Amino acid sequence: MKKLFALVLTLAMVLTLIACGDQQTPDNTPDDSAANGEVLTIRLAHNSTTDENDTYHYMALAFTEKLEELSGGTMTTEIFPNGQYGGEREIFEATEFGTTDMSVMTNGNIGMFNAPNYAIDLPFMFADSETAWEALDGPAGQAILDSMEAVGVKGLAYGEVGFRHMVTNKHGIKTKADFSGLKIRSLENEMYVSTYTSLGANATPLAWTEVMSGLQQGTIDGLDIPLAIIYTQNFQDLADYLSLTGHFYNCQTMCMNLDFWNKLSAEQQAWVQEAADYSSDVQRAKLASTESQWIDELEGKGMTVIRADEIDFDSFKTSLNEIYDSYAKSIGGTYVQDMLDASAAAAK
Fold first, then answer.
1. How far is CA 339 from its chain centroid?
2. DSSP-derived secondary structure for 45-91
3. Is 293 exposed, middle or buried (0-12, 13-18, 19+ CB in 10 A)?
4. What is the dihedral of CA 221, 226, 229, 230, to 10 degrees?
5. First and final C-alpha spacing in the chain
């Protein structure tokens, strides 16, 4: 089990990461300069900001730094943040087709392309972050990464965006009844829509680019979102309530175009994998060390925070049993049961 203190020690090694990335216009011409000592530049896309606390950008920077170190400077990345390749649907498609070489993206948005990834995002799958890390870094998580090869993508590692909590206007969320009638933005996948429908909300699938205006204009009353994004993108200016429901665990998945991976030498593949594992470790540690501080700061900036001990979690969970059965069947294989078993074993 990955222990938090070990991750924090690792974190200290990368606190000097520069907080800004290269924001040039994407060049879709593949880079085949791997041989003869030339520098191989890997295009790495994500949909988030270049804020130093942003989990996606931090993972991308940590990967870049470690890869350059391991390869002796013969491999590096060019990072394309801020959705330069489009939303996450478009980013994953670009990774499939090779118009970008790598991506760091929300795992739940991969599920629409590769169903086994949905097993990670089932509501209340993990009790806490360390439980999730052990389950994801073991055989159950690796099986899901391996399954991505069927859609032309090499799954490399899981970072963490954190548990998704509710930010809302009108009122906070303490029981299932509080969802009734609220227009809740959902990720653009059926699992999230089904979950909110079961809880009595009006699920509204909405691309991330429309969320800010949706809250401002009242098109939506709230959404689930990780603390890192709430904090770095100033959601205290858009929503009045933060309810620490933690009903979805949100990992971010680092992946690479499979053809690009297969063209690398065995040594280069080893460097890429080691750098991906390293970036996962330090990114998780950074998040773990700052979340409680972010909650306090958001409260200090005017958000009403409803903490876990005020929330009736049983009222949520009793409405969601059918979702597990439904997705176990639709995903196929043993992915859901294996992840449930891994989660239960890690929680002991």
1. 17
2. E-SS---TT-HHHHHHHHHHHHHHHHTTTSEEEEEE-TTTT-SHHHH
3. exposed
4. 50
5. 11
Over the stretch 73-121, which tens digit does the pLDDT of each residue have?
999 999 999 999 998 999 999 999 999 999 999 998 899 899 999 999 9
Q: Which residue has the tokens 């896309």?
A: 45
- Are 44 and 101 a contacting pair, CB within 8 Å? yes
Q: Is 80 exposed, middle or buried (0-12, 13-18, 19+ CB in 10 A)?
A: buried
198-202 contacts, C-beta under 8 A, 24 or more apart: 198/319, 198/320, 198/322, 198/323, 199/316, 199/319, 199/320, 200/176, 200/319
Name the one residue in this structure whose structure tokens are 């639709």: 330
Q: Which amino acid is at 195?
A: T
pTM reported for the whole predicted model: 0.82
Q: How far apart are CA 68 and CA 50, in angstroms?
A: 20
Question: Which amino acid belongs to residue 117?
Answer: N
